[in-house]
Amino acid sequence: MAESDLDRLIRLLAKLPGLGPRSARRAVLHLLKHRELLLLPLKDGLAQAAERVHECSRCGNLDAIDPCAICGDEARDQSLLCVVEDVSDLWALERSGGFRGLYHVLGGTLSALDGVGPEDLRIDRLVSRVAAGGITEVILATNATVEGQTTAHYITDRLAPGGVAVTRLARGVPMGGELDYLDDGTLAQALKARRPL
Amino acid sequence: MTAADRLATESGAKPAPLRLAVRRLGLSQFRCYDSVRLDLGPAPVVLSGPNGAGKTALLEALSYLSPGQGLRRARLAEVTRLGQGEPWAVSARLDGPEGVSEIGTGLAPAADRDDQESRAARQVERRVERRIVRIDGKPAAGPGELAERVALLWLTPPMDRLFQEGAPGRRRFLDRLVLGLDPRHARQAAAYEKAMRERTRLLKEPGQADRRWLGALEERMAAAGVAVAAARLSTLTRLEQALEAGDGPFPAALLALEGTLEGALETMPATAVEERFRAGLADGRSRDREAGQTLSGPHRSDLRVRHAAKGLAAGLCSTGEQKALLIAIVLANARLQAAERGMVPLLLLDEVAAHLDAAHRAALFAALAELGAQAWMTGTDRALFAAMPGEVQFLTVRDGRLDSVAAHARIE
């Protein structure tokens, strides 16, 4: 028997991160109950996103225009490039409001066990972007995981011949953090990365 | 006054304040157990019952309260009760020097694993089997976080052959000892293993491997590897001091680490060892490719133990002496944890009384009482534990059921 429209919708929604079959059923029911307010606008929103949103050909960010709004913003510092693993990391940095340069989204991290190599990430494009000139500093904002650090080290090595300054995010005491609650590893890192006031 | 002294003066009928104790234990679909819930006091626990009743399974369940493999080193899916679709789970309420912790762990349910369908497709089955951990009701990043809350050591009958068999068993034993004193050890060891597995995979791939990628992995291996070796070395030094005096009838042991990094760390600064190890890995790529594994590093180190009084390698001592040496090391480590970390670990001692004579048994019971540890001991015969001083909780295990025959019973 062919699966019903409802079952199909539930099955698809259940594949979303953070959702399971139960929450997908609840979401579907909620959408159907609020047809005008939610279901139809969501349908339009999804259709528009599917049609218009694409990866930026320069940095890998997601946007309806190409180059994306960040790459196209001439008020941003064109000499600073921040390398992140995923678009979600870019969004996090944008939310912080502390960075006014450009981004480069890798699309993941190196992982031999998962079959992800340099050619699967936007690393070649990063190297040619830097080689094209105009960038004075590359900030590596990969995660502090084994894969993130391996990837950061790999990129440092690839960029070394060009002589561009490569930096990475500081690791240490979080804002409003109490030393007593910090794990030993972070505290040791923070101590190592201390700076004069 | 050290923590150990404080412990000693407060021992006796009153439970020591530093000891970690399981106050409630829940098992679900674990080995032969369908569903079990136990409420316990802080006193030592004796599990008795016939062979195959599920005594060791209960200790195994407790062993999952710490990071890494359980005490049987089973695959996670093997632990689920036969014929059960629902994955196994263990929950515990622990009461220790840092207050009460609620810990839950178990095999990640199938639905949870489906979430990562695309990832899973690329992974071999073993890697998909994942253990989930919840601490105080919140999901933990991984089992490594358990080391911050739970200190736990075990001795099992298969470990009686520890000194005869290969280095891996001794290395695992050593790493457990280190973990009790340095909770970060699990994370560093995991980071090292992970980078090493990635490098091995990369070397195996046909064609010329990416040199820069290999270099990046070797850098990570060097940093984590030296941290692992340094933690082992520092634990061993302190442990040896604690062992020097010996422990009643338990012999003093001399400990030594055999390993390229550990050896180098005794004469060179850590940064120099790190650089040398990294360079060695880079030079050894073709050799490692042919071998299909990394041929040198802390994953190949060995723990050497000698009977101090006899001047004999542990492997050459009698079976009873070997057991006594193991007990001495575990007791010394537990005392060290109490003194340095302020936490007396849980001790899981499977069939520990069986191979000990009356004098050694009495000495072990006395040492456990002095330590104030919640020791979990198993045996086919309850009578072997009759000489235990203070309060003891006796449980009878039969066909996956537990009867607290005389929980909280006082044996005078």
Structural class of chain A: alpha/beta
Q: State the distance separating the first and last CA atoms of chain A.
A: 71 Å
- CATH-derived topology of the largest domain in chain B: Rossmann fold
CATH superfamily of the largest domain in chain B: P-loop containing nucleotide triphosphate hydrolases
Q: What is the total tally of β strands of chain A? A: 6
- Class based on secondary structure composition and strand pairing of chain B: alpha/beta
Helix content of chain B: 40-55%
Uncertain spans of chain A: none
CATH level 1 name of the largest domain in chain A: Alpha Beta
User: Hey, roughly how much beta strand do the residues of chain A contain?
Assistant: 5-15%
Radius of gyration of chain A (Å): 21 Å
Query: How confident overall, as mean pLDDT of chain B?
Result: 86
- Report the span from N to C terminus of chain B: 31 Å
Shape descriptor of chain B reads globular
- Determine the oligomeric state from the structure: heterodimer
CATH class designation of the largest domain in chain B: Alpha Beta
What is the number of E strands of chain B? 15
* Percent of residues in β-strands of chain B: 15-25%
Structural notes for this entry:
The complex is a heterodimer of chains A (197) and B (412). Chain A has 2 domains: 5-52, Helicase, Ruva Protein, domain 3; 75-168, Dna Topoisomerase Vi A Subunit, Chain: A, domain 2 (3-Layer(aba) Sandwich). Helices cover 44% and strands 11% of the residues of chain A. Chain A contains 8 helices and 6 strands, in the order αααββαβαβαβαβα. Chain A has helices spanning 5-13, 21-33, 35-52, 69-72, 87-96, 123-131, 146-159, 184-192; strands at residues 54-55, 62-63, 80-84, 102-105, 137-140, 165-168. A 4-stranded parallel β-sheet of chain A has the order 4-3-5-6. In chain A, strands 1-2 form a two-stranded antiparallel sheet. In chain A, helix 1 packs across helix 2 (21-33). Chain A is globular, with a radius of gyration of 21 Å. By secondary structure, chain B is α/β, with parallel strands linked by helices. Chain B has 2 domains: 1-97 and 99-148 and 342-412, Rossmann fold, CATH 3.40.50.300; 169-319, RecF/RecN/SMC, N-terminal domain (Glutathione S-transferase Yfyf (Class Pi), Chain A, domain 2, Up-down Bundle). Chain B is built from 15 helices and 15 strands. Chain B has helices at residues 3-10, 55-63, 76-79, 110-114, 117-122, 125-128, 146-149, 167-181, 185-204, 211-244, 260-265, 270-283, 285-291, 319-341, 358-371, and strands at residues 21-30, 33-39, 45-48, 89-96, 99-107, 131-135, 138-139, 152-155, 253-258, 302-307, 312-313, 346-349, 375-379, 393-398, 401-406. In chain B, the strands form 3 sheets. A 6-stranded antiparallel β-sheet of chain B has the order 2-1-4-5-6-7. Chain B has a 6-stranded mixed β-sheet with strand order 8-12-13-3-14-15, with helices on both faces. In chain B, strands 9-10-11 form a 3-stranded antiparallel β-sheet. The longest helix of chain B has 34 residues, at 211-244. Chain B is globular and about 65 Å long. The model of chain B is unreliable at 1-16, 111-127 and 406-412 (pLDDT under 50). The A-B interface holds A 15, 17, 20-21, 110-115, 117-118, 146, 149-154, 157-158, 183-185 and B 111, 115, 117, 119, 122-123, 127, 148, 183-184, 187, 191, 194-195, 197-199, 201-202, 205, 210, 212-213, 215-217, 219-220, 224.
